[in-house]
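Why show two proteins at once? Because comparison is the fastest way to build intuition. When a single record is shown, students tend to memorize it. When two are placed side by side, the eye starts asking what differs. So, the first record is below.
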Amino acid sequence: MLEKIRDGSQGVIAKGILVLVILSFAFAGVSSYLGSTTDEPAAEVNGDMITKAELEQAYQSERSRMEQQLGEMFAALSADERYLESIKQSVLERLVADKLIDQAAKAMGLRVSDEQIINAVKTEPAFQTDGRFDNDRYQAILRQLGYQPQAFRDMMRVDMTRRQLTAALIGTEFVLPGEAKQLAELQGQTRDVRYLLVDSAPFFATAVVSDEQVKNYYDANQGQFISPEMVSLEYVELNATDFAKNSPVSDDEARAYYEEHKAQYVSNEKRLAAHILVMPGSDEVAAKTKAEDIVKQLDNGADFAALAKANSDDTLSAEQGGKLDWFEPGVMEPSFDAALFALNKGQYSAVVKTDFGFHVIKLLDVQAGATVPFDDVKAKIIAQLQDKKAVDQFYSLQSKLADTSYEVPDTLSETAKAVGVDIKTTALFSRDNVPAALNKPDLVKAAFSETVMLKGLNSEVIELEPNHVVVIRVKEHHDAGTMALAEVKDSIVERLKQEQANDAARAKAQELMAQVKAGATDLAFVSKVKLARDAQDVDAAIIGKAFQMPTPSTTAVVDIVGLANGYAVIALDKVNAAEGVSDELVNALKQRLNAQYSEADYRGLIDSLKANAKVLYPVAE
């Protein structure tokens, strides 16, 4: 919360690391500073308890943060209980780390005085108005956040004490300019290479796998053949779109709606405008004076079209005597629009300024607004009334759907009868291959929940889209387990054939490598000069291997590397030094390295403290 209070911190990177520390502290709230509790512990750190309530509060705060950051993606991820469990575990570890730092700071005798806290509050920009501390604003923000002043000061005291320790460690980290420059030069290095591809496909076609080999592989790799937990569903679906197709609307109903809402079907008045534009250029005063002189000439009886042809800077309309187009209200700039719609037919305006320059506007003609004929909007009205009837029917049936599925929770038959639709079913599916029509986070979560999957009860009403809901129940459930050999035999055969093909391709690559080292010159190499690490037109495995190979001396360095479907023989001919390493790149790398070093220092501190502490997790969360 007080991200800008950074007493004792050093540099941007240290501040970034400390933000994480402060946020993790804020998750825990201030309850631990307001007295003891009898809540069950989620963890104990050297006898100090982290309660389940503190963990839950921190977990919910982290969930809210991730929902804001990830949006709909988090909704999909949160359908997996294992993912949420991993988040809660990471939050607990963060709270343990905070507790270890607090204990270390206390053991070292670190303290924060009342004066330091007062100064931190007064210098916090969130509590300032026009650069000065505003006590009323301070009190209002505390009330909004739900803090009492004393509890807030206690939180700050612990937070600032903790930062004395972390800032002292992280703030001492630095990166030498030569270190960053060396990395920049290494990253900017390019290499001249040649390579031969050995495709495994021809060897795959001749590979032979016996039943015994398949059985041996299956027995030795049981963990590869675990089938996920699967369910098939029955469900009752209500979709307003389906009802709209069967909601007839008569011509009389449409006509009655048209007459009742006739004001909606009146077209806007349109006006045909002409103008003379004087663009300001570098002298706005002269341009305005010229436009005012044009108005005087019009007042004296001059012809508008002739003046437009002679004076308007809008050359296209000038050729037409200044004529523009038909405009509805609100189309043109406000000042132009206001002047045009204040004129009577045949009148011209005074000088009007817009972003384009100075205008003299004339109203050539008026097309009054007219009521759109019923036949022109009949289809649109019928569609609107069909949608309205469908939505009304949907909400009426949704209420029955919710009531009946709750009152008769062990079947969907009564629910389907109550709403007049058929029960639909799905094939077996896992969390990773949900049918597309039902693949919504809330539905997946419900399908694999204890209530639906294990107890066999109807779910609550689940919204798939606006005005589109379902109630589900499990039709069939299969626990996770090992698939039978017959189910996976074909895939094992394919895998073993590919292994044989890869072995043969590797042998061929090694043979070619030997020929290259022996000086063979008749091989069809692909050559790449100044190959960069981030090249997109060469296989990543070839690039990775090329930059691992040692610098050649008098002859090329040759090696092989495995690819997705075969091998490659690589000949490294030359290593080229980086070109144009800029100061900006070096500075960026310094910051990145500093961040990495600081992060490693912080993790090392936590690991060291934890290794010498007694941390217990008495309650499995």
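Second record. Ask yourself what differs from the first in the token line.
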Amino acid sequence: MRMGVDYYPEHWERSMWEQDARLMRDTGVSLIRVAEFAWSRLEPEEGRYEFGWLDDAIDVFYKYGIQVVIGTPSCTPPNWLVERFPDVLPRDAMLNPRYPGIRGHRCYNSPSMRVFSARIVGKLASHYAHHPAVIGWQIDNEFSLNECHCESCNNRFREWLSEKYDTLEALNRDWGTVVWSGEYSSWEQITTPLGGAKFRNPSYLLDWKRFETDSVVEFQQLQVNILRKYCPDHFVTHNIWSYPMSLDYYKLCEVLDFASLDYYPSTSPDKAVSGGYGGALTLDLARGIKRQNFWIMETISGPPGCWFPMWRTPQPGFIRAFAWQCIARGADTLVHFRWRSAPYGAEQFWHGLIDHSNVPGRRFEEYRMLCEEVNRLSPVLAESEVLGEAAVLHSHDLYNAFEIQPQAEGMNYFDNLKLYHRALTKSGILTDVVNTTDDLDQYRLIIAPSLYLLDEKLADKLKNCAKNGATLILTNRTGVKNRSNVCWMHPLPAHLAEAAGVTVAEYDPVGHDVHTIRLQDGKTYSCSQWCDVLEPTGAETIAWYEDDFYAGKPAVTVHSYGKGQVYYTGTVAEESFYLELFGKAADHAGLTRFAGLPEGVQISIRRKEDANYLFLLNLTPKQQTVVLKGTYRSILQEMNVGPAVHMDPYAVEIIELDQEFGGKSIAATV
């Protein structure tokens, strides 16, 4: 576990390098990331490589015991490359090139881009393979889908489709191109989605998104192969950008040693509470990419701002608290962006730890304190991991399918995922967020939001989990389509209807209209977006609609299936409904649960063989109190705490638990 910063030696006078290295060492920094945007300095002209300046900078930092991660510079092709080889530039749907002046102006399928990227990465890898300061590589920077429509992408798209479907007959059948006379009689008729028309075949558009992901993966793999060849002892990672994202991060990170995340929690007072919950989801998603701990390659050091107005500055304690949130949810290394605010360029006002004044201030002193704490506790927390007991399923394919065909006003796949995850977090239920394709046998509670694309393989996996004793919670818009984005001709929820013990008689896309559901005990909750009118075929109804033409009809059901239970929620209710539903389901499943957490206070547990460490995080600007059932040892304060733990704004507490414990024996209602 270590602390680092993003540093750009090419931005500063050489005389500043040693001063910075010395201050970093004294502050507790042991790692820097460099060079991910430095292609024009590393290769100022085609074939003329100048690494001397980077050699000198790395040597300076090595002298002060600071290790180095090098970023491959393919995110920012230099002007000479764009000028001589214009195929490097991506083209929009109208075939207009995206000109330089911003980062990310490269086509992943461009032959020139691939050739010159391979050359610069090969030169860097062979040059730094044995430098004692260099420990790993970050490929490119914040990959995304460029949606390029150039000739290379069109040709490669046809090849990709031919490899997937083998014949045009199979493609026409799976896409249902008979609609609107869309059948193809030659591969050359197929293009990328040119022109920007709205009326596109949804199966075609989903494959287009998949192709784009594979293009990024291939471009990354080109660099991975070179780095593995020259630097077999170095790690290789990539810094993903937050969520939601069309790019399939599970595919992207499959060959990497670990995932890295760029995480910028909101400093807005309007999000003083909600931002922490959204951040928790982002961190749990990052951990779920490879089902292991990860790195934070960039995180907040001051108010961001550049191509948008500046955010509010982080309040006292904010930087420290959200850094510990990252660690609490599985980050093993924190790299803050950036060491010093840039005096020029597009990111002048994306503030670093040190402002343009070059005088360390309040934020820097908070960071120094954070470094001391992390470095002190690193031996204790090393090799610990976060293991959730509940799982929320997530899929980039599902996100893309809903983006291609929005189902109702205000209905958003990722926003609903946030809703369910936030309710789990507030309920103190230890949760993983994992890919729908992952193994789920370890989980006793599984929330499967809107499995819109559902095949028999996924359905059988979920049914087996329930048969073996898990509680499965399904939601509306489950089982609508197959993996080709074609509607099933079965009553919903299709392949999960038997397990759910219910079918959807009809549905109403209510959008922003607010309806009401009533539970058995008489409690009522508002709902919106969607209303499935349910017809039980063995399931017990636990909530009914209160209004509209389906008043009195089932809205939520539960069905005993094998040794487990399957819930079906036909609508999207207010948060308090899920707090009750998930709490009861977790208790029924025998999960660890920390009830009574104040609004904005989060818990997480990192486990290792001989100990468990409970993190209490007050991610709000007000004082909070958490009541425990007993007294425990704080490894942060090195003293006993509890039963009442009084937490100042943005306070953090880390408590050592016994190896065997149950949440109900620790947490108490405030």
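One difference worth noting in the second protein: The longest helix spans residues 202-230.
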